[in-house]
Write a structure and sequence with these properties.
Length: 345
Amino acid sequence: MVVPSQAPLRMKKTRAVGIPVIDLSLEERPKLCQLILKACEEFGFFQVQNHGISEEIISRVEREGQDFFSKTACEKQRAGPPTPFGYGCKNIGFNGDKGDLEYILLEANPHSISHRANSISQDPTKFRCAVNDYIEEVRKLACEILEMVAEALWVEDKFIFSKLIRDGSSDSCFRINHYPSLVKGDDNDDDDWSGRNPNINPQLFDHQSKSSNRIGFGEHSDPQILTILRSNNVGGLQILSADAFWIPIPPDSDKFCVFVGDAFQALTNGRLRSVRHRAMANSTKARMSMMYFAAPPLSACIAPIPQVVSIEKPCIYRPFTWGEYKTTAYSLRLADHRLDLFTNS
Ligand code: GA4
């Protein structure tokens, strides 16, 4: 299989580094705001624990994902193709990127989820409720984090970022990725749902090592404002540090991972850093991750807030609409540095 973004695997080394884990229940608000801002500046990434999202809400949507991915290839394809929303297998985007995964990609609004639910689940109401309840909760978490960043930046209107994703016409989306194991009857969870996936042909991977160097989802940054990810207890996620080392993120299903996206980097004039990351496919255990990508409405203007612009720090990027940025992202490859196309110089 041709995996376009394999070059960075050879160029960049992996190392273990303490990445921030922020306990939302522990700190006083001003301290919490500063910790979050610092993590967004240094890594563009952090994990949160004691986030307040109930295990029941998480496990309902996780179960829906498991049920869906255990279906036959034919049944799954009823939900596709993912151009731009639906079921995808190995193909990512429109320009030839590939990964060892399958996924469902949905618009994160109740109307569109109701519409899709019929082709995804035999019990569309159950699917719709599980996904909508989950999205509602992660959207609240994303808003809370955006508000804390605004507070830490001393912005008078603390809703300056969060209102973009609360807007009824926000272009946010929701994705469930399944990185299958190569082992039949793998030991992931008690019910062994993914090892029996009839859609995955182990011969596809014959030429690849069974150690963990298969690329599940290649190196990229997320185009949106903020991403909230939750995975099962199987590792694979790695983030790229500022000094170009791959940092493996220990899996923990009790925590959420938070990623700064390109639009947030532009809104903060480069003060926050959009984090490049990738997912390695684990050969012995199936990994499932769920991502909420918080985006503004298509017509929203992405321009730096005044607090981050000065004579010493002039605007790095020209203003653009989210729609324009999204179109550019989809016209490029996964690993491209698309924000560089929007610099002023
Ligand atoms: C990365 C973040 C989200 O998963 C996503 C991805 C999208 C896709 O898989 O269709 C993109 C990718 C993501 C970045 C650049 C473009 C678009 C594939 C691709 C090559 C849904 C998104 O919004 O951008």
